[in-house]
Amino acid sequence: REGRAGPQPGGRSPGAAAPGAALLLAAGSLVLMALLPIFFGALRSVSCAKSKNSSEMPETITSRDAARFPIVASCTLLGLYLFFKIFSQEYINLLLSMYFFVLGILALSHTISPMMNRFFPANFPNKQYQLLFTQGSGESKEEIVNYEFDTKDLVCLALSSVVGVWYLLRKHWIANNLFGLAFSLNGVELLHLNNVSTGCILLGGLFIYDVFWVFGTNVMVTVAKSFEAPIKLVFPQDLLEKGLDADNFAMLGLGDIVIPGIFIALLLRFDISLKKNTHTYFYTSFVAYIFGLGLTIFIMHIFKHAQPALLYLVPACIGFPLLVALAKGEVTEMFSYESSAEILPHTPRLTHFPTVSGSPASLADSMQQKLSCPRRRRQQSPSAM
Description:
Elements: H1 20-49, E1 59-61, H2 63-86, H3 89-116, E2 128-135, E3 142-150, H4 151-170, H5 173-190, E4 191-193, H6 196-216, H7 219-226, E5 232-236, H8 239-242, E6 249-253, H9 255-274, H10 280-303, H11 310-328, H12 331-336
Parallel strand pairs: 1-4
Antiparallel strand pairs: 2-3, 5-6
Helix pairs in contact: 1-5, 1-9, 1-10, 2-6, 2-7, 3-4, 3-5, 4-5, 5-9, 6-9, 6-11, 9-10, 9-11, 10-11
C-alpha cells in the first residue's frame, strides 16, 4: 500500500536526463513488468474463485473495506514517514528486510509452484508431509495451522530461498523485482472485489489518496525512496552505462499494479460470467492500463517530477470498460454482477494457463498474511497486502 508514488525518475537531477535509449529501456521494462503480474494474476484469480470450500476462498473486498482503505493506507504511510524521521533508517530497514525476506520466499514459492510442476519427471519421488499446530485438548482442541505439502513444494521453497538470501545480502535490484513480481501476482490473484461498484469506490478513494500524498506533500516520495523493501519494481536508467551494477533507478510502486490489477481481474471474471466466449472487458481494461501507465511515464519525463500513477490509471481503467459497456448496452449487467465463489462447470475455462496448487506460501498464515489460496488449507486465511 505504501510507497506508491508512481514511476519516478530516480537519482538524477531534473537537468541531468539519461540518454534517450536508456530512458526508453527503463520505461518499457517497468511497463512490461507491471503487465505480467496483472495478466497472469487475473487468470489465476479465476482458478482461485472456483474453490468450493469457504475456508479456501480468497480475500473479498467489500464496499465498506474499499471506503476505509484510503484512510488506513494514509495512516500507515504517515506512520512510516514519521518512523523514518524519528528513528534510524538503518535499523528500520534491517527489520523490514528480515520481514520481507520471509514473506518474499513464501510468495515466490507460491508463484513458481504451478510452473515448476511441469519440469519434474513423472518418476520423481514425491513424498507427502503435513504440518499441524493445534490449541487446547480434547473436544476443545482447535486447529491453528493444518498444512499439507510435498517434496515438489520443498524444491520450490529451496529455489525461492536462494533468491531470498541474494536479496538479503546484496539488495540487488533483480532480486527485489523477483519478490515484487511475486507479491503483485499474489495480490491480483487473491484479493477479489465483490462487484464493480466496490471497485469504483476503491479506485476513486485511492485516486484522491495518491494525488494528495504525491502532489500535496513529500511523504509518498520520501517513504518510497527510504523504504528498502520489495514494495516497488525498479529498473536502472544507467543500465547501458554500468551494466548490472547500475544504481540510478526508475521505480513503480506495487500498489499501482495491484490496485488496478484486482479491478481488471474482476472484469475478467465478469467476462466469463457472460458466457460469450469473449474477454472484451478484460482486454479493454488491460489496454486501458497500458495507456494510463504510458501516459504517467510521459508526463513524468515532461515535468521531471514523480507522478501519482493512479491519477492516470483510474480514469483509464474505469472509463474504457464503461464506454464499451455503454456501446454494448451491458451497463446494468456490469454493475449488477457479483463476483461468485464458484464458476459454473459449463463456463469457458482458461485451462491452458497454470493453475494454483498447494505450496509453502500458505505457511504465511502463521504471520497473518494471505499470500496464497492453496487447495488443501483448512483454516481461514488472513489478509495479505
